[in-house]
Design brief:
InterPro entries: GntR_C, TF_FadR/GntR_C, Tscrpt_reg_HTH_GntR, WH-like_DNA-bd_sf, WH_DNA-bd_sf. The protein has about 250 residues and is mostly helical. The chain is built from 10 helices and 2 strands. The chain is globular and about 80 Å long.
Length: about 250
Amino acid sequence: MHGKKDGFMSRQDVKGENSKNARRKSAALAGERKNEHLSSRALVYDYLQSQMKQGALLPGSVLDLKAISQKLGISSTPLRDSLIRLEAEGYLTIHPRSKVVINTLELADFPFLYEIMGGLEYTVIAASMEAYTPEIVAEMRRLNAEMKEAILGGDMSVYDSTHYAFHEIFFEVSPNIFAKRILTPIKNRLWDFPRKNFVQDWYLAAVTEHGLIVDAIEARSREKLMHVLKELHWDFKYNERHIRKVYNLG
């Protein structure tokens, strides 16, 4: 029989215990490597995203992947994973032979992007309109008031964060995760790159339109919602002159 005898372990028991310890160590090391990989991936993602938002990486520029790896002290694997995520979110395009280019935003892109934004936001809100509670409506009005205050104070960083949070509420209320997956890269492309010029009138008009969106939701009026989203807020022709100024598109 195998096992303990007079307080001693047999050779087979010792081997079994050593094997267990080896598996524990291996699992612990694997966990550490996984955490290190996830940490490196987040580091790369945050770095590249901040560089784009600050204008250090401009639309159309080609990334120097070797320089980024050396600067951050990371391997090619977390860098690749972060690039794949950023491509999925609309920030950049990965070309053959490891060429990675920051996406540009041309005037010709806006009619299509605005049409998608208006159509899908209307669909998402209208389908879940009855789920908007008084508390949610109040939160939307609070965010809109913060946006106006930020615009008047010239604090576009606060405006951007509250603006994003306002539109994100639509997807917190709606169960339509597929619409969110479609719209997230479009929103990132429209909002996360630095705008060239500050046109206060346009941003204040957007605040007014946000108020109309909330009014339509509170009134449970899909007709009013369609008007403000498709004929004002996300209508390219209605916004074209401001788009040209803000994005410096001539």
